[in-house]
Amino acid sequence: MWMMLLYRITEGLDNGLGLTPPMGWLSWEKYRCETNCKKHPKSCINEDLYKRMADALVDQGYKDVGYEYVNIDDCWALKERDANGQMVPDPERFPNGIKGVADYVHSKGLKLGLYSDIGTMTCADYPGSEGYHDIDAQTFAEWEIDSLKVDGCYADYKDFNVEYPSFGKALNKTGRPILYECSWPLFTPGYLLATDVIPKEVAPNCNYWRMSFDIRDDWNSLILTVNLFALPEAKTSMIPASGPGRFNDADMLLIGMSDGNISRYQAQMALWSIFASPLLMSNDLYNMPPGTKEILQNKEVIAVNQDPLGKMGYPMHPEDGTSATRVWIKELQSQSGRSRWATVFQNFLTENATLKLEAANIPGWTSETKFTVRDLFAHQAIGGNHTSSLEAEVAPRSVKMFLLTEQAESASSASRRFFSVPAYLNLIVFLLCTLI
């Protein structure tokens, strides 16, 4: 069963980074590879874009709730390396170089991410890092980047188990802390069926890794990604691999990228938090539709994503990855000895659905367990103490997200037990006295 997971990874990439899922902003899905800055000055890949988004993270409160990475994606470099074999930032679009962008981002109390590829070229045909691991790692460290995404285009997937660890070791060797994202096992045929690859090979060598192809800003793409995380293979591949310093990446948060449906955006935020996936936005932070900023800055949902246990949640009932309705649960760090679980009631049907979570199906709980319920989007408690189960009606194509907290014994029952002990001792003393 989903909850009967017999082992967990004990070691991740030895760099001490990414103990909770990374949070920040990423340019790819919103801005792609637009390099014509004369025609598109506000939406091209240049240093001004990343400086503006760094400003927005700070000025609009995103940094305050945990978003700290500003990530440059593909298309930042010239098409050729220099005479020393080093990558070169496009001088017209990055006149101050990547180091200049890093300095600016760091001045805001943020971190800078950069992009490369494990193959000979990037996915947009810029220089890749194959054969240049040491040179590129040292170059990136000298530029003082804080995170590196390494894509998997133009590479032989059969060499991923050599190339990705090699690049990770080269990064560590520089002495600069650089968070390491891999596109491995993505690009590997049948990677979900090879269930030991992620926990035994990928997780020990990467801080986080892509599990799905690029997400799009529509329901079909969201559903496909969510279904992947619900596959039966996840219980032996993704779930055991997830933990501090190592996370399954469900791809970018597209919340606010367009005038999309608020329910869909809530669904992505809730489920990505249940998955313990990185929260990397791809949007225009200066042009956000109403209601989207509130979703992205929901502290209660973010707390589920950032829970220090780093566990990936799972659907309560085994399935084949095609269910439209699910109840997901995720174990959280206990508080004052009381266990806590987050749950998402998912309804991707086009009609209302009533979903139910049985307390007895939560590991360590029984049908008699008392618990409180808090709605994480409504920001309010639901009733008093609950027992046995939690049931909710979920609107079409939407989710509800709750925090369940186990309750201690009531004060009255604890008091009865406290006072019963002296009474019992008094009886013993009385009997002893009568015998003397």
From TrEMBL:
GO terms for cellular component: cytoplasm. InterPro entries: Aldolase_TIM, GH, Glyco_hydro_27, Glyco_hydro_27/36_CS, Glyco_hydro_b, Melibiase_C. Pfam families: Melibiase_2, Melibiase_C. GO terms for biological process: glycoside catabolic process; oligosaccharide metabolic process. GO terms for molecular function: alpha-galactosidase activity. It catalyses: Hydrolysis of terminal, non-reducing alpha-D-galactose residues in alpha-D-galactosides, including galactose oligosaccharides, galactomannans and galactolipids. Its EC number is 3.2.1.22. It is an enzyme of class 3 (hydrolase). Keywords: Disulfide bond, Glycosidase, Hydrolase, Signal. Residues 324-404 form the Alpha galactosidase C-terminal domain. Gene3D superfamilies: Aldolase class I, Golgi alpha-mannosidase II. Belongs to the glycosyl hydrolase 27 family. This is Alpha-galactosidase. It comes from Perkinsus chesapeaki (Clam parasite).
